Amino acid sequence: MRTPIIAGNWKMNKTVDDACDLVSKLRESLAPYSTVERVVCPPATSLLPVSAILDESPIGLGAQNMHWEEKGAYTGELSPAMVKEFCGYVILGHSERREYFAETDQTVNKKVKAALNIGLTPIFCIGETLEQNEAGKTEEVLTRQIKFGLEGLSEEEAAKIVVAYEPIWAIGTGKAATSEDANNVIGGAVRGNLKKLFGNTVAESIRILYGGSVKPGNAVEYFGMSDIDGALVGGAALKVDDFTAIVKAAAG
Ligand code: 13P
Predict the structure, then answer these.
(1) From CA 150, how far away is CA 137, in angstroms rounded?
(2) How confident is the model at residue 40 (pLDDT cuts 50, 70, 90)?
(3) Active site (annotated) includes residue 134
(4) Which residues pair with 37 in a beta bridge?
(5) Class for domain 44-213+225-230, per CATH?
(6) What are the b/e assignments for 149-185, b being 16+ CB within 10 Å?
(7) Is position 96 annotated as part of the catalytic site?
């Protein structure tokens, strides 16, 4: 049995005051759903104050990105150790990072390794564009992202990652993938490639999330699916009631 995870990716939203307000409320509202691993990923400026609010709470904290180098002349970046001071998780390879900040499978691979080395759980994001989807290239794209993004990981390391399948055409568009389609891709191309690389036992143990326009109204459909182990939530993670309803749906 894989423990479901619901992670909120706040993206570039919320000042420190707003982030603290939201997390204080989530700390209460998410408390009953202990069968679900609950994670919030606010902007970097809020990691320290939010970590104080979440002290002794089971809600996990994640960063949205980090650099792979230990330290040095990398203006604007956060090192793995800086993230580890406050967080247990880090989102890596999000499609927005790949699209707007020139991240590649190779740089994402370095980040995944750096996260594992320091004891952070990487939430490793993959997904195809609308164009690739319509051209029937979804499997090919995901195969490449998984092969190169996770290259060089041992089976033991691979067992520690969380994968988020986020079709780019479903992100922030309100056009979510159907639960059947998402489950077919996740059970097929995603878990199938993980099996090829790391064997059946490890691949069956890895949590794979769906992301892309997950809302309270559609969440329950995904969590009934055999291969979907939770969600990476964007817009709906910014509202207490919506995020709580999604966590509740995952708790069953
Ligand atoms: P939305 O839930 O806003 O579509 O965003 C999904 C996402 O990109 C989470 O990382």
Answers:
(1) 20
(2) very high
(3) no
(4) 5
(5) alpha beta
(6) bbeebeeebbebbbbbbbbbbbbeeeebbebeebbbb
(7) no
* C-alpha of residue 72 to centroid of ligand 1, in Å: 32
What are the Cα distances from residue 114, in Å, to 40, 76, 79, 207, 218? Answer: 21, 18, 9, 20, 35
Would you say 171 and 234 are in contact if contact means Cβ atoms under 8 Å apart? yes
Task: Parse the chain into domains and list their residue ranges.
Answer: 44-213+225-230
Chain-wide mean pLDDT for the chain? 98
* Ligand 1 atom at minimal distance to the Cα of residue 176: 4
Q: Which is catalytic among the residues 37, 94, 96, 103?
A: 94
- pLDDT tens for 132-148 read 999 999 999 999 999 99
Pairwise CA distance, residues 140 & 47, whole Å: 36
Decide if pLDDT at 1 tops 90: no
The residue from 96, 128, 157, 166 that is catalytic is 166
Verdict on whether the full-model pTM lies above 0.90: yes
Share of the chain above pLDDT 90, in %: 99
Instruction: Using the mean position of ligand 1's atoms as its centre, give its distance from the Cα of residue 54 in Å.
Output: 23
* Residue in 9, 39, 92 to alter for ligand 1 test, most ligand atoms within 8 A of Cβ: 9
Tell me the pLDDT tens digit for each residue of 206-229. 999 999 999 999 999 999 999 999
Judged against a pLDDT cut of 90, whether residue 162 lies above it is answered with yes
CA geometry: angle at 113 spanning 107 and 118, to 5°? 130
